[in-house]
Amino acid sequence: MNRVVEYYESFDEWGRLDREPIEFWINWHFIRRYLPQEGHVLDNGAGPGKYAMKLAEAGYRVTLTDLTVKLVEAARMKAAESGIAERFEGFYTANAVSLHQLKDSSFDASLMLGPLYHLQQEQDRIAAVKELYRVTKPGGIIFVAFMPRVRHLLTSLMTPQHWKPNDTADNLIRFMEQGTFDHQDEKRFTGAYYYPIEDIQPFMETHGFETIKMIGSSNIASLLQPEQWNYWRSRGEEEFSKVLDLIKQTAENPYVLGVSPHLLYIGKRRE
Description:
By secondary structure, the chain is an alpha/beta fold. Helices cover 44% and strands 20% of the residues. Helix 2 crosses helix 3 (21-34).
């Protein structure tokens, strides 16, 4: 996991969600739709805490965990600067496969929007989901992020020099068979695992969750270039708002999940 920590210590994850607002906006829309009215929420693998801050601002009690010490401290500082530190029950440096600081059935809802696609070994992915099950209350809602394998194939085919070693046919074939990706260039997104979309629901249900919905976090919007966004913005606020509503509706369409860089699995812990 050292490569993952090193990457996030130098990468501006908060800024990424500012630069890619559709992903955050769609995720937050569906998170708010399915969250309980109140309660204690875990943001597991929270990075600098973009979602955790929104949860705290919305009145939830929040516990934040992340593997990277630097990001946990950044989240603690952000909460203090924003005047919402009292809404946080704790900030923990923790590996998603072993949340030993957290008690059983502690959370009314839990987010895990990063760890699972950085766990390249199946036993680690299973351990992380089991830990999520353990700390979430029976009936509690969970939100888990996945990265679909077919989208990374598309991305690699479109910009092969940007995603080495996926710049050769043999490496692309290997990637589609195994799902693991380790960037050849230093300080790039690495140590990742991409899921076959058809495997996600069975995987979560096997480990104690009932599926509610699968969402394409940025879905078809991820294919638009800046000049195309600029066109729709130039049409005026009302029309641009209608376009955003269409994109939000498309997020629920199961037939376009594969074009989205991130998927949001929404489920419920079985009693």
